[in-house]
Design goal:
Layout (H helix, E strand, L loop, with lengths): L3 H43 L9 H4 L8 E6 L6 E7 L3 E6 L12 H22 L10 E5 L7 E5 L4 H22 L1
Antiparallel strand pairs: 1-2, 2-3, 3-5, 4-5
Helix pairs in contact: 3-4
Amino acid sequence: MSTDSDVKELAELRERLEERIRSLQEELETSKKLLTIVDRQLSEKSFVKATDFPSEVALARPEGGHAEVRPMKRQKDGYLLGNASVAKDALTIDIAQDVAVRSSTPPFKSYFIGKVLGAMRTDDERLHDEGRLPADKMISFDYEEPSSKMTRITVRNYGDKVRLNEIISTATWTLTKMLEKQA
């Protein structure tokens, strides 16, 4: 059986716990308010209105209506492999002039064309068969190789940004591997 002193200790302990909970709840509410203030300040200071941009930004678009040009660089040393010009429905990869690669060099046809772009084409064909993608919106691709040197890869109807990024990163990796095999 418990003694009066045990009961008294338990009651005091309970009172301290309740006070601690109240204190922590007040601290939590204060922290939430501070977080709201910080978030508001961040959004006000980091958000830039379009009207605040200089007008030269609008003129910086590349020729041909491309919205963006991304340099494609070898990861280990930053060597420029080419430039990816991204338009609404087409991606054009212009291979750098000093990058001499042939389409017959692996893994271009087996991996990049066959597995990456081919898989995307298969997905688009399935969507087309299900009636969810018109035939003129299916991915298509080709490459230019005058004088046994690839100069350009064109991918039309690449789809969304995820696919676009996958194509560019895989093309960069593929060109890197092709250069290693030709060296």
